[in-house]
């Protein structure tokens, strides 16, 4: 109740910062200004009936002010006062049920809508908190998203977390067209199969990940991408051995997929003498294929455990720490540079095992003394030797740019250790709430100097 009261009180205080100014004459259309915004010219307008909101943006696309064009004037919260408006919006996002279904962009829009309403009618007919919650309830819906997965072949549908991996056939596409076309005809629109195929063909006979989320539209896109990214990287965790092979591409959801078709460059000896035209084509062009036998194996190895972890969705610190760790570990093979992979592999371990603000703690020592004994993974001395080797490679590369030789055995064994460590964490945190609880499990003492 205190937070709601604070929001309502701050809403009126921020409303007092709204200033009026004459409409700035322009011959530019709203569409032209939107195109400029897409090209990097910082102005944004959101049409809403006869009133349009506008905002200037910084280089990170963050609002620096907000205003609206009324029939005879403009109202605006200037840059000097915008931080107070931003704080008001962030108060809403600190309320858990609102943050789950709405995002910053949506709250900005409806909060300023409330202020426009007061300015126009000269009276507040509803408190800000109630106005925003009502708008959320109106706009929040269950929405479904299908994302294309690049460089992956699947022979059977399966589920990881909240994402369903599958493929649509040409017959499936035709069924969707018939349903969509029937709906369009009801609304007086004619949809041709030829036009449909131009749009939909890229989704046919291609691996897709489907997810269902609930919220306002802008929040749902964000939620869907997070769910897809988590499930895809969970799958990648258990397929890293295949991705080590020469010629195999690292599969990913298309919005995270970064592969160039070719690299072109010139080589010469001063003044363009003995000039050479060089073209390098990627060698990692073979997709990874998952059959039923492979799927059964990795589910048994721990992917099903990850699936259960994801759908449990516990709203505690340790859950989000492990979510981030799954994404970080699954992303290792996205680095084409092996030295960058080693840097990020070590970072993956240290993010989870080094206590916060304990700058004297050494990740290598904690790994060897506290983590390895708990994992029961074969010859521990060999593992400690391999860990030392990777730390040496990492340190020489980061601090001296010396590229020591990377042997497959050391890299593979420590990466496999990382997977076992992650499985162990997922399997043991069901009763934990914080990262400190995980440190206690591994007997990692906060503020204790690691020898």
Automatic annotation (TrEMBL):
**Top-rank lineage group of the source organism:** Bacteria
What's the name of the protein?
A: Apea-like HEPN domain-containing protein
Show the taxonomic lineage: Bacteria, Pseudomonadati, Bacteroidota, Flavobacteriia, Flavobacteriales
